[in-house]
Design goal:
146 residues, alpha/beta, Rossmann fold, 4 strands, binds FE2/S2 (inorganic) cluster
């Protein structure tokens, strides 16, 4: 049958800082720019609020990809939060490599409140990249399976 309904749709968790990226997502929405509905946005006060364990937990709970979006370097509402986030994520990427999780499943992007188009573009592009990788099987907690 054409248009098979069982097409793989990756579940993406997007941590967005309140001050820039979440506003960028809002702008994308109000500008009617589309991005996959399977991108689940979690609003955080700042990108530095994202503990690397949140990302591992997201994979455990069934995420296929995780993206952290924050203000551009130098524009963080809390001055240096995104610098901390960037350093933490650099360490996390090494850990993911060690754990055998494809590094391409996690991404860090800086999206300002005025960049609704960039937000939509980044989400579409990331969802496409994760879709190409297929379903994430690492860290999956069987208790979290539907
Ligand atoms: Fe946006 Fe810190 S408030 S990254």
């Amino acid at each position: 049958m054409q248009g098979e309904v069982n097409e793989f749709k990756p579940l993406i968790v997007a941590f967005c800082c309140n001050w820039c990226s979440y506003a960028g997502a809002d702008l994308a929405g109000s500008s009617r720019l589309s991005y996959p509905a399977d991108v689940k946005i979690i609003r955080v006060p700042c990108s530095c609020r994202v503990n690397p364990l949140f990302i591992l937990r997201a994979f455990q709970r069934g995420a296929d990809g995780v993206i952290i979006c924050g203000c551009h370097p130098g524009d963080c509402h809390y001055t240096t939060g995104n610098y901390y986030a960037r350093r933490r994520m650099t360490v996390l990427f090494r850990l993911l490599e060690f754990m055998g999780i494809d590094r391409q499943r996690v991404r860090v992007e800086w999206v300002s409140a005025a960049e609704g188009a960039k937000f939509a573009l980044v989400m579409n592009e990331f969802a496409g990249a994760v879709k190409a990788l297929g379903e994430n099987v690492k860290l999956g907690d069987l208790r979290c399976k539907p």
